[in-house]
């Protein structure tokens, strides 16, 4: 599905010179703005799209809004609710 590869959320990490991005497929990645290298920081299970994100003022927490990827599904169940999750960015940024 096209939405899984789409970038839906962005956040800047000026301390590490990274641009963080969240995708419709539940991936949180980082692009090094000096070298252009890219890496995956986190993959969220459960078909949840990362549609919003940001860093705390001190750079230790990454907050995300996640919504279920319901595009193209034929389920008649009620959709999963949107989630707000906070991650320890110092652990996932490396």
Major sheet description: 4 strands, antiparallel
Overall structural class, as computed from helix and strand content, comes to mainly beta
Extract low-pLDDT stretches.
none
Tertiary shape: globular
Helix and strand sequence = HEEEEEEEH
Count every helix, treating DSSP H or I runs of 4 or more residues as helices: 2
Element layout with pairings:
Layout: H1 2-5, E1 7-13, E2 18-23, E3 27-32, E4 38-43, E5 48-55, E6 61-68, E7 83-88, H2 89-92
Can you describe this structure in just a few lines?
The chain is mainly beta and 94 residues long.
Protein described:
- The radius of gyration is 14 Å and the shape is globular.
- The N and C termini lie far apart (30 Å).
- The model has no long low-confidence stretch (mean pLDDT 87).
- The protein is mainly beta and 94 residues long.
- It is 9% helix and 50% strand.
- Strands 1-2-3-4 form a 4-stranded antiparallel sheet.
- It has helices at 2-5, 89-92; strands at residues 7-13, 18-23, 27-32, 38-43, 48-55, 61-68, 83-88.
- It is built from 2 helices and 7 strands, in the order αβββββββα.
Tags for this entry?
9% helix, four-stranded antiparallel β-sheet, 50% strand, three-stranded antiparallel β-sheet
């Amino acid at each position: 599905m096209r939405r899984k590869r789409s970038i839906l959320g962005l956040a800047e990490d000026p301390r590490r010179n990274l641009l963080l991005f969240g995708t419709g497929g539940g991936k949180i990645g980082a692009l090094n703005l000096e070298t252009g290298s890219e890496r995956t920081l986190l993959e969220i299970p459960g078909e949840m799209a990362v549609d919003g994100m940001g860093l705390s003022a001190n750079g230790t927490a990454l907050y995300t809004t996640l919504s279920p990827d319901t595009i193209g599904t034929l389920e008649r169940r009620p959709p999963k609710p949107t989630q707000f999750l906070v991650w320890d960015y110092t652990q996932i940024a490396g």
